[in-house]
Design brief:
mainly alpha; two-stranded antiparallel ribbon; 2 strands; globular
Length: about 325
């Protein structure tokens, strides 16, 4: 187990170094931030002073060395737009994004697993076919279109939920969370539900196919021959074997949800890192872009590691073979 963890951590460090190098050169292809930061009416002398202040006039190799020296110390620079430390700014917004992603995953599990079990047991029912068709249809629609429909129906017409913002928050272990207040729950439901639709379809298919596969295995047939009830076979014998492969998949699904929050946060005006990233790209705020990508890559690597470790605890053969997703 220790060797497995060490190998995964080494892979994460190499990934961060690779991503950091790509970021350093990639953000320079977006344009020169001085064109946005400096007023066009400023004289050439003042322009040169400002460029020197931000280090834009330094040789590229010097900037590269300076970038990695500061990054290894946890200093990603100061935001050109917000005038705050980039890492602290991203960290504040990351809490809102992770909260939104966790609620979306929770909703997808609550609906996806029971619907998948129902589809596997009642394969020929009209309800199963209706659910399958509906999830197929939803998973093929653009996320921004679904977001607008949710706002029109539940915010404009029915007035059940707010259409933007995070609402009231309360501190939980020092973190401001919307789910700790009733008003916060009303604000998070719509964006989390939009994100959960695609994940629900995925979990539904995986649960259905896994249950169909497990129900035909020898241990289920043997249990049925011993006289065990179908309910006991389904929930105490078959279901654990279906849910175990879902553990590493949920790590990947969490990564997908984090990536999809960029659009969702923009439409619902959710104050997360996705919304911050869109603003930073538009304004060429290099420190925030770099801090965002490295922070999110680190977070997703940690989530993937935890998911794989949980899978290893369920099936120790994975640590020996290295076959983990």
């Amino acid at each position: 187990m220790i060797a497995y963890i060490f190998r995964r951590l080494s892979e994460t460090v190499l990934l961060l170094v690779f991503v950091g190098n790509i970021l350093f050169f990639g953000v320079r292809l977006l344009g020169d931030p001085s064109e946005i930061l400096i007023d066009p009416g400023v004289s050439l002398a003042e322009r040169a002073v400002i460029r020197h202040q931000y280090g834009f006039d330094q040789p590229i190799l010097f900037q590269f060395w300076h970038f990695w020296k500061n990054t290894l110390c946890g200093d990603f620079g100061t935001s050109f737009v917000y005038h705050e430390p980039a890492l602290a700014l991203v960290g504040q917004r990351l809490v809102a994004t992770v909260e939104l992603a966790c609620v979306a995953i929770m909703i997808s599990l609550i609906f996806g697993i029971p619907l998948g079990l129902l589809a596997a047991v009642k394969q020929t029912s009209h309800l199963t076919r209706c659910v399958d068709l509906s999830l197929r249809l939803v998973s093929g629609l653009p996320s921004f279109w679904i977001s607008l429909i949710l706002i029109m129906v539940f915010s404009v017409e029915l007035r059940w939920f707010p259409s933007s913002g995070r609402g009231q928050t309360a501190l939980v272990f020092g973190l401001p969370l919307s789910i700790a207040t009733r008003n916060g729950w009303r604000h998070i439901i719509l964006p989390a539900s939009e994100l959960a639709l695609f994940q629900t379809a995925m979990i539904f298919r995986l649960t259905r196919s896994g249950m169909q596969r497990v129900r035909g295995m020898d241990f289920v047939r043997f249990g049925r021959a011993r006289g065990l009830t179908e309910h006991r076979l389904l929930f105490f014998h078959a279901l654990p074997n279906v849910l175990a492969p879902l553990i590493p998949v949920m790590g990947l699904e969490f990564s997908a949800v984090i990536a999809m929050t960029v659009v969702t946060e923009t439409i619902f005006n959710w104050p997360g890192v996705g919304h911050l990233l869109m603003t930073s790209i538009a304004l060429l705020d290099r420190p925030v872009i770099i801090a965002y990508v490295l922070a999110v890559v680190s977070l997703l690597s940690l989530v993937s590691l935890l998911a794989d470790l949980a899978h290893v605890l369920v099936d120790p053969r994975i640590a020996r073979t290295g076959q983990s997703s």
